[in-house]
Structure formats: C-alpha cells, structure tokens
Specification:
There is one protein chain. With 220 residues, the chain is mainly alpha-helical. It has 2 domains: 84 residues, Leucine-rich Repeat Variant; 121 residues, Serine Threonine Protein Phosphatase 5, Tetratricopeptide repeat, CATH 1.25.40.10. 75% of the residues lie in helices and 0% in strands. The chain is built from 13 helices and no strands. The longest helix is centred in the last third of the chain and has 17 residues. The relative contact order is 0.08.
Length: 220
C-alpha cells in the first residue's frame, strides 16, 4: 500500500502566502529554493495546491522559457491552476528579449491602455524591427492597429504573434474580433474557437461563439 503523498515545501510556502498575502515574502522564498525549471515540473504534481503554487510562482520568477508548460496548464483539471497559469502566461509573455526591449514593450502597453494608438503603433513598430521574434511586441502592435481601425493589418500582426508563440490565445481572440468587425463571420468563428482551444477559460470569447452560432442558425 502506498504511503501518504509527500508535499513539496512549495505548497507550504503557498499556504503561508494565502494566510498573510505577503507576495514579496512568497517571491523571496520561492526564488531562494526553486529554479523555474523545477517549478515547471511541479506544474504536473498530483497535489492541486502544489500545481497552483507552481503556476503562481512562475508568474513572478519565470520567463518566456516557461511559456509551453504554462500553456499546457491552461487545461489543468483544477480551475485555480488554470486561472493562475493564465495570469502567469500574460506576465512571461512580456519577459522575452533584453531589458531595454522589455521596457519598450511596457511603454507600448501603456500607450495601448491609454488608447494612444498612433504612439503605440510607432513604438511597437520600432520594437518588432529590433526584435522580430518578440511575439508580444507583434500582439501589442496588432492591438494598436485594431484601435486605428486597420483590421487587415492587425490580423497580419496577430498571425505573426501566433507563428512565434502558438499558445497566444490573446492574438487568436484579437484576430477573431478583427474578422468580426469586417463581417467575416466564419473566419471570426474559426479564430475564436482557436482561442478557446488554447484557453477554455475565455468566457467572453465563448459567449461570442455562442452568439455567432445562434445568428448563423437563424440565417439558414
């Protein structure tokens, strides 16, 4: 008969974080004891709490090298793991390239959030010229193109982001929104379904798919 499952120290560190919500202490303890590659392996641990802890920790100490492992964790049986993996993915997507390139990306993101799309586009173009393998730079330029109403160009940038990072559910969803605004319903559905295949937790995308499918049935 198998003995009780031995839990890694990581889970106890995570439980302490849940009690005190001291993120700085959680990061210090994790960084002192675990390499990102070890946290990746713990994403497959049988204990749910351990997987949650690993997914959360990678958002703080991981980088783009953990992209695939976190992408697979979007299909974990536990919703908490899936949610933490999604948040961590969004973080590690911004940690490719050099430190100056990452700061440039931060600037682009701020401009997009502020809806300063012309400035965001200019800065994102500078970044993709410098680092054409930086998937999030292409995605952020796609966002600026969308904000400027350049849907065809935005689709092209989304495709490039997905070519580099096949786990980029945001680029797939963004491409679907572009097709939808162009009236290309079938292409929009294909992109939205691709986004959901990558990340089943995208409830807004799921609602859009259901709405488009209902509309298609009415037209028949």
């Amino acid at each position: 008969m198998a003995g009780p499952l031995r839990l890694p120290l990581l889970e106890f560190v995570y439980q302490q974080f849940l009690d005190d919500r001291d993120a700085a202490a959680f990061i210090r303890k994790v960084a002192a004891r675990y390499a990102p590659a070890t946290l990746e392996r713990l994403l497959a641990h049988p204990a749910r709490g351990c997987r949650r802890a690993a997914a959360l920790a990678l958002g703080y100490v991981g980088d783009y090298e953990q992209n695939a492992s976190l992408g697979r964790a979007l299909h974990d049986v536990d919703r908490g793991v899936r949610t933490m993996a999604e948040n961590s993915l969004r973080a590690v997507w911004c940690r490719s390239g050099t430190e100056p390139q990452q700061k440039q990306l931060e600037s682009v993101i701020r401009e997009n959030i502020a809806k300063h799309y012309p400035r965001a586009f200019t800065r994102a173009t500078e970044l993709v010229d410098l680092a054409p393998w930086f998937a999030e730079a292409w995605n952020q330029r796609a966002i600026s193109q969308y904000g400027l109403g350049r849907y065809t160009e935005s689709i092209s940038d989304c495709r490039q982001a997905l070519e580099i990072n096949p786990y980029h559910f945001g680029a797939a969803a963004g491409m679907g929104q572009c097709f939808l605004n162009m009236g290309e319903i079938e292409d929009a559905l294909l992109c939205f379904r691709r986004a959901l295949k990558l990340n089943p937790e995208l409830e807004g995308v799921r609602a859009a798919v259901q709405s488009l499918e209902r509309g298609r049935k009415k037209r028949r």
